[in-house]
Amino acid sequence: MKIEERFIGGGPVEGCDADYGYLSGFANTHSTEAIKGALPIGRNSPQKPPFGLYAEQLSGTAFTAPRATNKRSWLYRMRPSVKHGTGFESSQHAFWKTAPCRDENDLPAMQLRWGPIDIPDAPTDFLDGIRTMTTCGDAPTQTGIAAHVFVANKSMDRRYMMNADGEMLILLEQGSLRFVTEFGLIKASAGEIVVMPRGVKFRVELMDETARGYIGENYGSIMSLPERGPIGSNSLAAERDFLFPAAAYEDREEPCELHMKWQGKFYKTKLGHSPLDVVAWHGNYAPYKYDLRRFATVGSISFDHPDPSIFTVLTSQSDTPGVANIDFAIFPERWLAMEDTFRPPWYHVNVMSEFMGLLYGVYDAKPGGFKPGAMSLHNAMLPHGPDTDAFEDASEKELAPEKLSGTMAFMFETRLVQNPTAFASDRSRIDLDYEKCWDGLERKFNIKDK
Fold first, then answer.
1. Which of 13, 15, 68, 208 has a CA positioned 20 to 30 A from the CA of residue 185?
2. Annotated catalytic residue: which of 305, 348, 378, 384?
3. pLDDT score of 18 more than 80
4. Element (H, E) at 291
């Protein structure tokens, strides 16, 4: 595809086709330029980069990380980041919290569920609309996660943001958004995810009147695709379905603000120009999108419900093999054909902590009380499983092959206990009747019944 020039001017991207010219391939080293000839050839930092640009490296890992896990990109920009990385003053965010979070609550050890968060009437952009539900770990030591929701009814316009604490996995539940980033443009709608690496500057524009969704903020190792092991070389998430932005720059010489979260604190600075001035880039550290409906599920074709780990899309590995800092798993459309099997997820007590949400449709283990936009938290060693109606239906129904259609639930699973924030601990937001969903599970034991 020939693109002579690609720039951002508050409207459609000039010279770019309808899909924004995405680059395909997870963990690939991509090369892209918005102006032909802007990308140096054969070297990263020539004495004089083309068109008077500055060469700057953005590193997501240490320089000495093994080649297989080393993440970095070279950016060729109008001004180096030091020109928009000074003059910061303290700022505040009412609802975005970072681990370790010291919010006190009087909640007992219990399973928790929340209904969808209302979109406010007051003008609220993506940044101001982030509300933290749970945190765990310690962002400065790069362990743990935070689970957020976001609500928005306006674009960020002349406001930009950068998260220095963690990688952000953004799931859309309502509406469509355009992410205008240093690396280029990404459009995403309900059922898609956008992953924004730590340290990348961006703003978010609404493409519908409102938007709502979830965010998993990962403080740990950069998310990667899980190993397939005995599954073999295919299925789950395919590398080619992850899409990266083609270079596009914003030549905007007007007042704006840059907001930064660093070590759990918030800062802002005023700029006389846009920080999204990257004309060309190459590397393997960049934002990307993925359509969750392209996930190729695998499952049992004999008996028993497999472990939910087979639905893992992305993982952030910890220092303990097989025990993730965060696993991002989904429960999409799929066929169930197991014989003599209780087909929904079984009852279990788990060392991992599970934060769940629903993007659309019905979740098979909680068909009655779990709506799109809702959330639940089942912390480590707290029992959970299907509600009474799901149990009775699955125990008695005829086991013909069945397709679960029009559904997309997800889970952030972590080895750490997730602590609800003050916002999430407000009893007016908690579904206080959640535990009643198991009230109908009665004793069925009968020694005469074989």
1. 68
2. 305
3. no
4. strand 288-291
